[in-house]
Amino acid sequence: ELQQKLEETELLKMELQMLETERVRLSLVEEKLMDVLQLLQQLRDLNISKRALGKILLSTLESCRDPQPGKACLFEVLDTLYHELTACELLQSQLLEKAQSHQSLSNPLVISC
Questions:
Q1: How many domains does the chain have?
Q2: Does a structural domain hold residue 31?
Q3: Which of 98, 97, 102, 91 is nearest to 38 (CA)?
Q4: What does the record list as coiled-coil region(s) (predicted)?
Q5: Is 61 within a domain?
Q6: What is the pTM of this model?
Q7: What pLDDT was estimated at residue 107?
Q8: Exposed, middle or buried by CB within 10 Å (0-12, 13-18, 19+), for 82?
Q9: Cα 102 to Cα 113: distance, rounded to the nearest angstrom
């Protein structure tokens, strides 16, 4: 009976470890999904065309067509989509404009008219 309890305990420990691993994986997926949704929101605010957004999505799906061994397919797609969105020219130009305006505002010697 003691042996059976030890085996059950080991089984429960392994199950707990698997659940913890799954929790961490889901947490990473959730984080990446939130990043992607934030970028999509920014692009929507910049009035990105549906055609450009469609091209980004198709490019993402094309690059994830053959999943890499050992990588979770869902996370791979989200990660690729995130990188495709960050490389979007519209978003890059907005970030550049913000950086330039912040730089001009932070310089106390600049007088704006």
A1: 1
A2: yes
A3: 91
A4: 2-46
A5: no
A6: 0.70
A7: 52
A8: middle
A9: 16
- With vertex at residue 15, the alpha carbon angle to CA 12 and CA 16, rounded to the nearest 5 degrees, is 85
Neighbouring C-beta atoms of residue 63, cutoff 10 Å: 14
Residue 1 amino acid letter: E
| Pair of tokens at residue 62 | 């094309």
| Residue numbers of the domain that contains 15 | 1-45
Q: In whole angstroms, what is the distance from residue 9 CA to residue 74 CA?
A: 33
Rounded distance, CA 80 to CA 36, Å? Answer: 10
pLDDT in tens, 3-34: 999 999 999 999 999 999 999 999 999 999 99
**Residue 29, both tokens:** 């997926």
